Amino acid sequence: MDEVIIKSKKRKLKKKVKILIYLIVIIISILLIGVISYNFLLSSVSTKSKVISFEVESGSSVYSVGKKLKENGIIRNYFAYKVYVKLKGTTEYKAGIYKIDKSYSTKQIVDILSGDKYVNEGVVITFKEGKTIRSVAKSIAKKTSITESEFYAKLDDDNYLDYLIQKYWFLTDEIKNEDIYYSLEGYLFADTYSFSKNPSVDEIIETMLNQSNKVFTKYKTQIENSSYSIHQIVTLSSVVESEGIYSDDRKMIAGVFYNRLSSGMPLGSDVTTYYAFKVDLGKRDLTKAEINTYNPYNTRGPKMNGKLPVGPISNFGESSLDAVLNPTLNNYYYFVADKNGNTHFAESYAEHNKIIKELKEAGNWLEW
User: Fold this and answer.
1) Which residue among 4, 33, 41, 196 is the one 20 to 30 A from 126 at the CA level?
2) pTM for the whole thing?
3) Range list of H helices, 42-176
4) 164 shares a domain with 110
5) What residues does 54 pair with on adjacent strands?
6) Cβ atoms 328, 254 nearer than 8 A
């Protein structure tokens, strides 16, 4: 009897040992998978070498820098980065411009940002989409020793403009029209650029035009086959950029503008009137006098039936260029955006006014 009890206890013990071993194996496996996954998430985003400039702005926390690294496709995973810097005890980075290779792991990138490896002899400037050349000039003046007046003077230099027209296929004599406020408005592509420590105006302009060339060249066949000139396409793209927020809306808006042009109607775009009188969007409402005054930019004014503005009114993103070259065909002639950025389309003026009334009654009317 005792022998049976002993054997039973041994079996139970063996069973418990087996269960314990299984649990240990499972725990080790989970930990191993976790370590492997964590190391993968800390690995480089690319096996190919590609050095880029990355700016750590003054006052940035290690976590805000991490989010920026993820947004720029430099690290694989923000959470893994966050865990790593916390475990490592990294609390700050020095402000500056760093040269980072996309083949570097998160650990290597943190080491670089934690050291004194920032590049002093350079400047990074971000130009946002939908901004006028006045905004471009201000950004340049803020980040470099170039004044706004020096930048504008270069835009008025006929010899320099002739040189650029010879160099870039998408620039034509239309940019020299005397009614145009700024010759290169709309042609300096919005992006983030790295320049030398003391860049010249020429370096900045041509670096931006080189990027424009990369984007425009993708659509070169469509542009050349269009019944509109490249200048007109760039001009309409800038208007579409300011009128629409979403890509699908921009294609619809482009279709509306083409309907208006082919029918000999004015574009009737508020954003062109704001530009005509050099009033920044959101600063104030337009006056009746401004709306009703002739200006080659003001498509709400007289003598502008069936016409585009004389030139672009801002820079723009690729989606706006694509919208102009590949519009959504429709039967609409009117549109209005509500305060949430949604665009409402109408075939008739009466329907358009009805939509406006409904938006106002619902408290959804956009007012500057």
Assistant:
1) 41
2) 0.69
3) 62-71, 78-88, 106-114, 133-143, 148-155, 158-167
4) no
5) 98
6) yes
